[in-house]
Amino acid sequence: MVLLKIATLAAVCVAAEQPDDLNLLQSSIQREAGKPVNPGMLGCDITGKLQFGVDVKDAMMLADPPKNKDKVPGKGKYAKALAKLDIKAVEKDLTDLMTANFDYWPNDADYNNYGPFFVRLAWHCSGPFRGTDGQGGCSGGRLRFEPERSWPDNTNLDKARTLLAPIKKKYGDGLSWGDLYTAAGSIAIQSMGGPTKPFCFGRMDDRDGKKSDILNEPCKDPDGKKLLNGQCVGPWGQSTVGLIYVNPEGPVDNDGNPRVDPSLSAIDIQDSFGRMGMNAMEIVALIGGGHAFGKVHGACADKGPGDAPATALASKSCIWSGTCGGDGKGANTVSSGFEGPWTNNPTKWDNDFFKGLLEEKWEKHKGPGGHWQWQTANRTSTRKTNIRLTSDMALVHNPVYKAMVEMFAKDQNTLDNAFAHAWQQLTEAGGTWSTARKCQEIPINMNGKFGKPGPKDWAAWFPRPASATQSLPTLTIPPHPQGN
Ligand code: HEM
Known about the structure:
By secondary structure, the protein is mainly alpha-helical. The protein contains 17 helices and six strands.
């Protein structure tokens, strides 16, 4: 049914007059296709069509440019194209994509929904923003270039970018990659019943990933002494270069091994998210709100996900082709190496992540992917298949975070407001924006549940770190500005 709808849309799209930029885009694909380009991508035996009948291989090349650079419109050209962008049509195509299913990267084992995958994409594109010096962020669309595309934390996100490539191809210059990644995340949240604020288009794309090189430097202390990866300090935002924020299994000790200890993870989170510029409210709403959706992927141990783009290019192999179960897809996917969903409704927005944290006793064990994760101590609980990461458990091992977990578990509306606010802040931070930036309310499908406005001044509710390298101060919870 969805495929039918997509086919109809494709016909409309072909019938429409093609803008110059779309012709340019297409001729650049043909030019690439005529030459021996990235064998890591084109050498893969992956065939098939995606939305609007676009070949998977063309989509892969468009999504992850083999030459690690791409043509992007300049300021003026982008502003003009953005002014003409049909936001409603983009939203519709993205909404249809959520519940489509393509053999290239099937979502049957992911509850027949690409939504959670796109939420992760948007978060991983935006998360590298650091408050310490304003570097990073999704504006620039650099997730598709080195170094970010080869970060271990971004494993398999090339598939999410490829799924989006036909939409980029359809809308051309007016829809930047940065906007497309973040819009896909926001529409995904909406389509699963979650709250969002008006979405703004206007992130300007970069032509390569150079601006992210600074985020990829080995970490050092202020005196220039090299630090262990996993123990980074400011100006680095993340604790570990190659991860978005912190190690999910727990912070690493001096030997580089994870300490599977939620209390230590809470300190790690406080440091890292603080340097990224987030306050405690935003931290808890984002981690638990994000993990209302989807699952972690670690189908089998020891075999890993395969080659990152940079290695695949050099060794003429496929990108993250997967090594479990023969095809590395669907139920055989390995991304992080953890395995399982957080809730029993992974494609429905709710506060069960928080309720589960409080209502269950959790114990650590090694999952099928060979990493430490957490399961319910009561093996007959209705949540017995649910998981928590050590970094999720951290939220009940810091008194300030725990008070918020309790608040969000009790009051869905407060979570809705906090999450929508924090998501907007996350996805809009950093980068260069067009003067033609335009914002629009995306359809709210909360059935009237998300009606109550949140506090106007979130910054006053919880303090933000004042200076570049300062971590969050010790917090006490002030009264709720609305008194609820
Ligand atoms: C302490 C911070 C966080 C850590 C350590 C963390 C860790 C992880 C890990 C290990 C995965 C599994 C990836 C895979 O194997 O497919 C994952 C998935 C996911 N994360 Fe997070 N995460 C964090 C914060 C967030 C935030 C802030 C959001 C969004 C607001 C988010 C949204 C998601 C979603 C939706 C998935 C599921 C993706 C899917 O089903 O394909 N995470 N996260």
